[in-house]
Amino acid sequence: MKLLEEKGRMYGYEITQKVKAITLGELNITEGALYPALHKLEAEGLLEVEVEKVDNRLRKYYKLTEKGNKETVNRLAELEEFIKNMQNIVNPKLSY
Question: How far apart are CA 62 and CA 84, in angstroms?
Fold first, then answer.
């Protein structure tokens, strides 16, 4: 969702390659994981799909809806809080 927020719209393979590049190959999202997630977000009204013909093939582009943009902000805030809590568990600051 964050990538779509930044780029506007992307197709599935583009998303997988961007994640791979950003994480220097540490995180590889498979099609089997990505497309069910995209379809779930679409069903929730967070994504919309635009189909375009590219090189005689139909390509699905995904983009956030207005609801999706708002939800991205909420989910990122939740993720940041989760990461902060995990950092506190892994590296607690002891106070006496």
Answer: 30
Q: What angle do CA 34, 38, 39 make, to 5 degrees?
A: 120
Q: From the CB of residue 64, how many other CB atoms can be counted at a distance below 10 Å?
A: 20
Q: What is the pLDDT of residues 27-38, one digit of tens each?
A: 999 989 999 999
Q: In this structure, are strands 57-64 and 10-11 parallel, antiparallel, or unpaired?
A: antiparallel
Place of tokens 């139909």: 58
Give the C-alpha separation, 2 to 94, whole Å: 34
Q: Where are the alpha helices (DSSP H) in 8-65?
A: 12-22, 31-43
Does 9 score more than 90 pLDDT?
yes
Q: Specify the amino acid at residue 3.
A: L
Tell me the residue type at 55: D
